[in-house]
Amino acid sequence: MKIWALKKEDVLQELKTSEKGLTEGEAKKRLRDDGENVIPQKKKSNILKFAYQLGNWFAILLWFAAGLAWYVRWSANDPSMANITYAIIGVIFFNAFFAFLQEYRAEKAFEALEKMIPHDAFVIRDGEETKISAKFIVVGDLIVLKEGMNVPADARLIKSVDLAVDNSALTGESEPKPRKEEPEEEGEDHANIVYSGTTVTRGHGTGVVFATGASTEFGKIAHLSQEVGEAPTPLQREITYVIRINTIISIIFGVTFFFAGRAIGIDTNHSFIFAIGIIAANIPEGLLPTVTLSLSMGTQRMAKKNAIIKRLSSIETLGSATVICTDKTGTITLNKMSLEHVYIANKSIDAKKAKPGEMALAAILCNNAKIDKEKVTGDPTETALMRWGKKIMGDESEGWERIDEIAFSSERKMMSTVNKKKDITMLYTKGAPEVVLEKCKQIAQEKDVVALNDKDKKKIEDKISDYAGKGMRVMAFAEKKLKGKYSKENLEEDLVFLGLGALRDPPRPDVPDAVKECKRAGLKIIIITGDNPLTAKAIASDVGISDNPQVITGKELEKMKKKELEKVLEKEVIFARSSPEHKLKIVQALKDMGETVAVTGDGVNDAPALKEADIGVAMGKGGTDVARESADMILIDDNFATIVSAIKEGRAVFDNIRRFITYIFSHLLPEMLPFILFVLFKIPLPLTVIQLLSIDLGTDMGPAIALGAEKPEPDVMDRKPRPRGERILTVPMLLKSYMFLGLFEAFASSVVAFFYVLSKGGWSFGTNLAATDPLYLKATTMTLAAIVVIQRANSFTCRTTRESLFKAGVFTNKYLLIGIGISITIIMLIVYAPPAQRIFGTAPLDVSDWIILLPMAAFLLGADEFRKWIIRRRNA
Amino acid sequence: MYKKILVAVNDSFNSELAARHAVAIAASSNGELIVLGVDDGGIIPDDLSSAVDRVVNRSKNIVNARGIIRKGEFFKTTLATVYAEHADLLVIAISRRRGTQFIGSKAGKLMQKASCSVLAVMAKGITIKGTGLLLPIKQDQSVNEEQILLIEGLAKFYNLSVELLKIIEQRRWYNLPWERLYKLRSGGEDSMLPFIKEMKEKGIEADTRAVIAENRTKAIIKEIAIGKHSMVLIKADIINLLKEFVFGNPVDQIISKGLCDVLIWRPAR
Predict the structure, then answer these.
(1) Per residue in B110-163, pLDDT tens?
(2) CA nearest to B229, candidates B119, B141, B96, B135
(3) What are A121's strand-pairing partners?
(4) Is B178 within 8 Å of chain A by CB?
(5) pLDDT tens for residues A581-628?
(6) Which of A842, A840, A844, A843 is nearest to A689 (CA)?
(7) Is B171 an 8 Å CB contact of chain A?
(8) What is the ipTM metric for this complex?
(9) Are A228 and B225 in contact (CB < 8 Å)?
């Protein structure tokens, strides 16, 4: 039912109410049936969210390892295993905390929406005006609206006395919208409807509630945000994949080595210790904290570039974007209009040279821009027209009073005002030229008004194409003299055509470069605008998106079958005269075609498209709260170029995650080899489980996080987008981590460093060493120190993929230097501080021991430089 | 198609909203509309008769309508009236009362027991803003003749376009290669083309879209949440007890979370 089209009596009848309002009994019954007038909030408790993280793949594996450790502690009465159990459980909670941080989404935006619904409201029930809690409002209630109040529910006005509302929360337009009580047939913004969450700026009135809670326009959007579950982002999927692969490898190794231990005669308890060691060695415990911190740093870097990221893992999705669907006005262009040309009486002239006349008067009177002293505020098109009109007309426009208005809507594409001066009543209309021209029967010439013939129409249409082809927005103006009483029906018919105004909104200066960068990076740009096709095409050409794109209008799009649309989307295309619904259709088709889509939007109706896209980008300046709530990223400056720099940052984040995965995975083999040697050669265990954990969660964390802060490589936007399905963890990466970097580290630490100390201390092969023997403590400390020192060198090698480290600059990542400083402090404490020595089972090393480790680190650096050189040479 | 349509109303606003759909179907199938009020003792008789009168009066200009009031227990009396009046279709409102489960509710019980076709309606509001009728179809489901007639009636009366949403349930679909996803979607859409053609021949704007989702119910809720549709027509399913135990009753989820009118239809036995 179109409630806006009903007469007052019918509205009351349809909603089973009366001018006295509902009875208390009926209101109670409706409240019981429909529920309270609140936006239902789907809040998952933070404790539950955290608890969920204690059961992921990593955590299950670690719980298993902790259980084994506790079993050994109990069965072998080995108290040291209790420490390991606690340490592993500590790791589980530590990881769960960071995984929880990643999942945690700011709910502030939603709270902001909720605050717009008032706590109290005035309703008429049983004929009396009463103040009630707004949550008890039901459909059929008569609400009383006064200046300054927030509207508590969606209502149809039945009484309006100079009532105006601020709809900015829904539409982004802050100018007050006059509200009426009369029925309306057409249009999108119904002047007799007030929406929940908006504010009464002046006047007063009464409305009948027709929607409450989640059924209001506001509630629907909140509902959309909450109910539309988001599929995991590519990064989340990849991390799950890495974890799963890693878990499988760990279990296979753990079980294999347990049985291998038993097969060669090691008792069950020691075989368990061995299995725990293997499992713990294979788990990159620091991965989740590092990913989370790296993404957090990425969001901070983006915030400095005017892009606010709402969902951490969305940063990487941005990097894999293949298509950007963007608005034109305000994003590609500056949204600063100026009137350049006018077409009056079949002549096109420079707007500045126009003479005072009816068209300039129409530009002033059919205009909602506000003039406060010298400052003009409002919609950019209207302010440009107002400034021009005032300049041309001077004081001649004074004395007119607006007595009525037929508001602009994107469906009607025109607006009209009725204005009175003394005994003259005039209707002035402005709007899209094709719409206004169709309603004109006459044309104003220099001195008189004549019938509008086909020849004139043709001339006007040619001029419209000419202006639009030059990238200008064209508006048409018309008038009609009204005699006596008038009715709104047919008011906008039989008009006198006054002329055309051609406005230019220049492109943002940094957009052409951003477009070039996108093209180099293999990104497709699709403009989706409500503007004229020719204007859109001209702007696309101006900024370098495409010289001759196919232009599809909204109407053409509606008729297209999905397969046809897919074919069109494969080419260079822009969409003109489009609505938010068209935008949604385009986004859905692109996603079905396998593209990763970033889409911009600002209005309330853009919310579905923003939600549907892989990356919804809302405007920070001109957008609505609703759009911002639905988006993944908010552009503070509304600038297209900011999207491109955010994509660049997203790609860098992906590269950085690969860097620190390589780095973290490099220490897995050095951590595993001690246990293999311990079983196979029956030597003392070169590295204990607790020492191994001190690497994973202590010394290696700082440099790993610092690798996440690497700046984008210079060629990051010269690469095509990451192909869909390309894994974050690749076989070459695993080979590099395990078989090159890891193998060298493992040999250097568990063989060279460990046996260096043992042989220096007089140990001979086959001799058992007690766990508290000072020689054994020093030897394991040496293994630990070797891994830590060589990993520091490795942190430098992981900074570049192909480029020489010396070319990229050894000291250009200051965070890495800080990270290395922190890890050196940690290892010094572990080695030299007595309390830490007791926990980690270490003993102090001599300076000469450290000196032996340095050539090993230098060798790794040199070897990796050589490897990179070979790759560069082969690629060249 | 439907010669006699029985719509049960009580004194609730909700049941009168649901009755509008009965009027729409009766108008398009040129059938008789019987407005039934059951006085089960828990309702003020005057309120009931005025509700029945209101619906009859409002629909008289559109269809051949008459009202009847019967005394007795609601469930049994409604079934008896269906039988006595030889009704082809029973339209009944789903209670909006919080905590009411569809299975076990009056509407749910009638859907299980009535011999004629049943349409249970959860009316979500008085205004119709969306311009579409959403028709979700499971992967292995097709559209039968009666369903087509029902869709035709509703779409023509309300001037709605029909969007057929083929839902392909697939666990962790996002891990599948894109080419496979594309083929699945295209296959789903192609299988629905004859229906689209038939709708267009009947003068109804229709389109189809296939979506791959982990959970059918959530896919329907998401589609409704986009806000393009003013109603969704769902064919009642055989209850999958295990699935319901794990995920909850899908009908309950859709009627509680879907923000447009939800129409659950079960064909005649």
Answers:
(1) 888 888 999 999 887 766 666 789 999 887 777 888 888 899 989 988 889 999
(2) B135
(3) A132
(4) yes
(5) 888 889 999 998 989 999 998 776 788 888 889 899 988 776 676 777
(6) A840
(7) no
(8) 0.75
(9) yes
